[in-house]
Fold:
Amino acid sequence: MKTGTIITYLNGEFTETPKPEWILRAQTICNRGEIPWQAALTKVLNFLPVSDSIGPDHLDGMQVLSWAIPEGGGHYTEFCTPHHILDAVWVPENAEWLPFRTKHILPFLQAHAAIAAANSIERLAQHFCPALGHWPADQITHRPNHPPLPTALRQAARAASGA
Structure:
């Protein structure tokens, strides 16, 4: 994406269009250091974002923030991790909001929910399977980015397995 453009969903397709005036105003406020980007956008649009999320504060968290643009300007959406904005899309036509939401936002959240569930299962397997004796501990791949389970939970697992 070029500096002066934004990804736009129009007529069922993604294109790049010049940034609308409300984004430029929010960037000006944000660049002055007054407030962070999403707060600047909320201030300019005078609308709190609607948030759809999968564990927003979790390691695998994903969030989709959507603002309604005043005066029939459609919707603006940001796809985010807990620390970064992955992408942003402007849907200028209100009639295209529901198709965009069902074809792009919901599948994005479903895919990340499946990833988060798989990561949680893997994390549980790392801690419980060796304790339960189903697999040797050397066959479990430990991931350094997964925090350890609480000690009490690990002790309960060992006690339940008879170890």
Notes: The first helix runs from residue 21 to 31. The chain has a mean pLDDT of 81.
